[in-house]
Amino acid sequence: MRGTVLVNGEQARVGMIVPPGATVVVGGDSEAAYTIAEDAFLQRAGSQIQINAAATVFRVITGALLSVFRPGTPKTVRMPVATAGIRGTGCYVEVGVARTYFCLCYGAVDLTPDGGRTRSYSTQHHDSPSWIDSVGGVESTGMLSHEDTELAALEGLVGRKVPFPVPYTR
């Protein structure tokens, strides 16, 4: 944890438990890594995330969130312009003003842009990052603002490894 991090309005402390049902707000020039059960998160500066009581739905309201989820337990990541049905996956979301960046780093997803049709796909290593706009448009792009070392560190927090070598070589 670095900088200003609030969990349910209370200043976070190292070792503090982030409970299901929490709202986590990370201030500017701040960052927080945390776990909930067997899932791990790296929340970037200027972000607000709401977690439902069952810790199965993660709503990215503002900012950016890198997540790794335990295989076998379906989760949902809601963004202002889309919903991602996650199945044992690493993913990165960055909410922008007019569009949202989504990268399925590895694993499987059912990605449904608001006003668009569901795309079900899987990736091995950042194979299909995209921008999603507010009318359901999806545009392919390159990998932005997250790294394999961060994914490896998050998986390490929950006793797992990423499904590729770090550094990655094709």
Tell me what the structure shows.
The chain has 170 residues and is mostly beta strands. It has one helix at 148-157; strands at residues 5-7, 10-11, 23-26, 32-36, 39-43, 47-51, 57-62, 64-68, 75-79, 82-95, 99-113, 119-123, 130-133, 138-140. It is built from 1 helix and 14 strands, in the order E-E-E-E-E-E-E-E-E-E-E-E-E-E-H. The protein has a domain at 31-44 and 56-157: Jelly Rolls (Sandwich). The termini are far apart.
Helix percentage range = under 10%
- The topology string of helices and strands comes to EEEEEEEEEEEEEEH
CATH level-two architecture of the domain at 31-44 and 56-157? Sandwich
Number of helices: 1
Look at the helices and sheets and give the structural class: mainly beta
Strand composition percent: over 45%
The end-to-end distance, rounded to whole angstroms, is: 33 Å
Overall pLDDT: 95
Stretches where pLDDT falls below 50 for ≥5 residues?
none
Q: What is the approximate shape?
A: globular
Extended strand count: 14
> How large is the radius of gyration?
15 Å
Kindly provide the name of the CATH class of the domain at 31-44 and 56-157. Answer: Mainly Beta
> Biggest β-sheet: count, sense, barrel?
14 strands, mixed
Give me the CATH fold name of the domain at 31-44 and 56-157.
Jelly Rolls
